[in-house]
Write a structure and sequence with these properties.
The protein is mainly alpha-helical. The chain has a single domain, classed as Hydantoin permease (Orthogonal Bundle). The protein contains 18 helices and no strands. Bound molecules: 4-fluoro-L-phenylalanine. The site of 4-fluoro-L-phenylalanine (PFF) has 16 residues, from helix 1, helix 2, helix 5, helix 10 and helix 14.
């Protein structure tokens, strides 16, 4: 199973599991562990989770397949893929904008993603140095407030995270990514299971957590909740911004796109659900509110680590692994722009990556100062971080998703699609109906109501 793929060249991943690992590495990250619990908490739990799961199944999986197949068909960066395909198919140049939007979106997401990943690294450090030992939830909450009030600490760890992203991305797909991911993703999963065991056995609130996440109160399914659930489904699967198109370009032609997409979606969803099942019981056991917002994961889990045997060690490992999961996602956020820049200009991959990382770092300061309160910019009643999050999650990613679905469904040749997907005729027709009609209509309606 793990032997080298004979067809592998320097442009494809070295064995058939690696694409899956890379795609899962892109999908699994802060979106699952940090964002899913706090958004689910803000939108009332079960109702949100219900819509989210439907979005993953009905829109997420077909789109994941569409993005991957475009990348694998052309074996180019997203922008050059879109250029080549639109010229081969005689389609308008406007389709190139899918890739431009994807690059912009990845760039903007990474700018805040890195700050949050920095929090995780900061927590790892504080846990191992014993800062949190014996603290109660309220004290842990004040520590969190102190972190978000400190520009120096946040900028320091944001810088560290960007340097790590740069170091790995600059080395290219083989050397940089494959080895690390093979160890770290399973390690993260095991640690999540350990924490799940803690939530089940030690909090006394596991049943309440389960009920919060899975009992659906249909009156809570508002337009805003649907838009948030759809945005979260796109975010968590890394959809609508060409990240998986960029990775698809390196996928061996013998891999099954459908099977891979389903595996990635299942793994990713499992991680999010497990994170929720860890966080909510701890939240309830400590008398915290599920609506606490971006600090939810940090305060709840750290309160548990602060009071469990060897909590500083477990906590340290946990937050380091979260940082690593974030790193494998960060690399994919950057990949569309890096691959385009190194194809298009004379810049080498390391130079292109460095320039991009500096720019991302700079924009990330806007998020840091949104949390410290120093940056008073308010756009549509949102601070800079909230605005970038809204713009990417609720607008750019869904818009990218609709356009990719329409392009793959209506513009690309049936023979190309069939060739890439290698599905039975029945399954192929089902996929095509989803990508032609269901995805554009559903995502389009949500997008339209969000914007207007
Ligand atoms: N899917 C990642 C997460 O859940 O943390 C975030 C992400 C990575 C979004 C790559 C988009 C992307 F292209």
């Amino acid at each position: 199973m793990s032997g080298k793929n004979p067809a592998a060249t320097s442009k494809t991943w070295s064995n058939r599991w690696t694409f899956m690992l890379a795609a899962a590495g892109s999908a699994i990250g802060l979106g699952n562990i940090w964002k899913f619990p706090y958004i689910a908490g803000e939108y009332g739990g079960g109702a949100f989770v219900f819509v989210y799961l439907i979005c993953i199944l009905v829109m997420g999986v077909p789109l994941l397949m569409a993005e991957t197949l475009i990348g694998r068909h052309t074996r180019l960066s997203p922008l050059n893929s879109m250029k080549k395909l639109s010229s081969d198919l005689g389609a308008s140049k406007l389709w190139h904008n899918i890739a431009w939007m994807g690059m912009l979106c990845g760039f903007l997401i990474l700018s805040f993603y890195s700050v949050i990943a920095g929090w995780s690294l900061s927590y790892a450090w504080e846990l191992i140095t014993g800062v949190f030992n014996g603290m109660n939830a309220e004290q842990v909450g004040s520590e969190f407030a102190a972190l978000t009030a400190s520009a120096t600490r946040q900028v320091g760890f944001h810088t560290l995270f960007m340097v790590l992203t740069l170091a790995i991305t600059a080395r290219g797909i083989h050397k940089g990514l494959e080895k690390g991911l093979q160890i770290m993703m399973p390690a993260l999963f095991v640690l999540l299971l350990v924490m799940l065991g803690y939530s089940i056995l030690e909090t006394g609130q596991f049943a309440r957590g389960v009920e919060f996440m899975f009992s659906v109160d249909f009156s809570k399914i508002t337009g805003e909740a649907i838009s948030a659930a759809l945005g979260q489904a796109f975010f968590t699967l890394s959809l609508g911004m060409c990240a998986l198109m960029a990775y698809g370009a390196y996928m061996p032609s013998t891999n099954s796109i459908g099977r891979t997409a389903i595996n990635v979606a299942v793994l990713d969803t499992l991680m999010a659900i497990v994170s929720g099942l860890i966080v909510f019981p701890i939240v309830f056991a400590n008398g915290m509110e599920p609506t606490a917002g971006p600090g939810l994961l940090f305060v709840s889990l750290t309160s548990a680590f602060a009071n469990m045997p060897m909590g500083e060690l477990f906590g340290f490992i946990f937050f380091v692994l979260v940082g690593i999961a974030a790193l494998s996602s960060a690399i994919s956020l950057l990949e569309p722009a890096v691959s385009w820049m190194s194809e298009r200009t004379n810049l080498t991959r390391p130079v292109a990556t460095t320039l991009l990382c500096i720019a991302v770092w700079f924009v990330g300061l806007g998020t840091v100062f949104s949390f410290t309160g120093d940056f008073k910019l308010s756009i549509f009643d949102k601070n800079f971080f909230e605005f970038i999050d809204y713009l990417t999650n609720s607008i750019l990613m869904p818009l990218g998703g609709v356009l990719i679905a329409v392009f793959a469904g209506w513009k690309m040749k049936r023979s190309t699609l069939m060739n890439q997907l290698a599905l039975s005729v029945g399954m192929f027709n089902l996929w095509r109906a989803m990508i032609r009609v269901v995805v554009p209509v559903c995502v389009g309606v949500v997008l339209f109501t969000t914007v207007f």
